[in-house]
Amino acid sequence: MENILMFFLLIMLVPFFILSIFMPFWTRKTESFGVTIPEEVFHHPKLQTMRNKYARYTTILSIIGIAAFMLLGLTATTEEATSIYFAVIVVSFLIINFIIYLKFHKEMKTFKEQENWAKEKTQHVFVDIRFRQNKLTYSYGWFIIPILVTVGLIIITFQNYQRIPELIPMQYNFEGEVTNWATKSYRSVLILPIMTIYQNLLFIFINIIIAQAKQQINPDNPEESIRKNVIFRRRWSAFSIVSSFALTLLFSVIQLSFIYSTNERIITIVSLVVTAFILLAALFLAVTTGQGGSRVKGVNSTTDTTINRDDDRYWKLGQFYFNKNDPSLFLEKRFGVGWTINCARPLVWIILIAIIGLFIGIPQFLGM
């Protein structure tokens, strides 16, 4: 069974490593290793060399990580040990990968100072007051479907409460064997449905972030930049909706298995398929869309006399945004695909603590 788990975790590692290796190629063309640059400089030979070197270093690190995990995994005698090895490999990779990034971030800052691209260009901040009038996300009404499914699941659970065994299986290994049980109670049978509602509300919140995140428009070609940014937001909005449906399906299958006799292997297979689907879909979006729609086909910049305002001073290490004068809570990542937070806004931390607190507190309250 440990070999099955190891194989599945390896499948999870591959898209994770691919995202890390090619990240410099998927960022906006106005940014390089967390540093603001003119768009036409993105294809400068020096920067191309830096991106290729970063990809090589990260590829080598990924190969070492996979090899180490396979060697450790083969010595593991339990699934718990395999999972611990996996966590150690991932954390180690993230730390070393960040150190590699910092090397290139520092090199990029030095190169920018030497070239002084802003000397002959005018810095602009372009704000479209009608930007929010665009349809930035898909309708929130889509989330009503999985929530209604979950409500129906709760009703079915109460109607068939007597059919549920006294011990409820809460965790399976990759052989379909139960490894964790919970005593039946009205609270314990609601753990999965309530967590399903929680994750659907979380996806709604993510959709709100996608719609309300700070706009970032390239002043060189604002119309094209807006078009790409709208596509970027709508694609990730669709991803959040599809992920919500997929996870609701997974939790529903598990919940119904408490009531109706179900082959444990089916639950394992559904779990694997849903997880793999979400990971591969995220990778596909990153490859085809890029950060802010940078990989969406379109017209290149129309001028080389203006550049985005240089706000590097607000980005610590090129990744952590601190600007107490910026009312925005969420904005695009500098290095990566997706969104990050304005660390200088206390409300952001309150929101994050609430999300984490509910995630931990709900199962505890329901007696898991």
From TrEMBL:
GO terms for biological process: response to toxic substance. This is DUF1648 domain-containing protein. Residues 324-349 form the DUF5808 domain. InterPro entries: DUF1648, DUF5808, UCP032908. The keyword Chaperone does not apply. The chain crosses the membrane at residues 6-26, 54-76, 82-102, 140-161, 190-210, 236-260, 266-287, 347-366. It comes from the Bacteria. Residues 149-197 form the DUF1648 domain. The keyword Transmembrane helix applies. PANTHER family: IMMUNITY PROTEIN SDPI, MEMBRANE PROTEIN. It holds the Pfam family DUF5808. It comes from Oceanobacillus bengalensis. Keywords: Membrane, Transmembrane, Transmembrane helix.
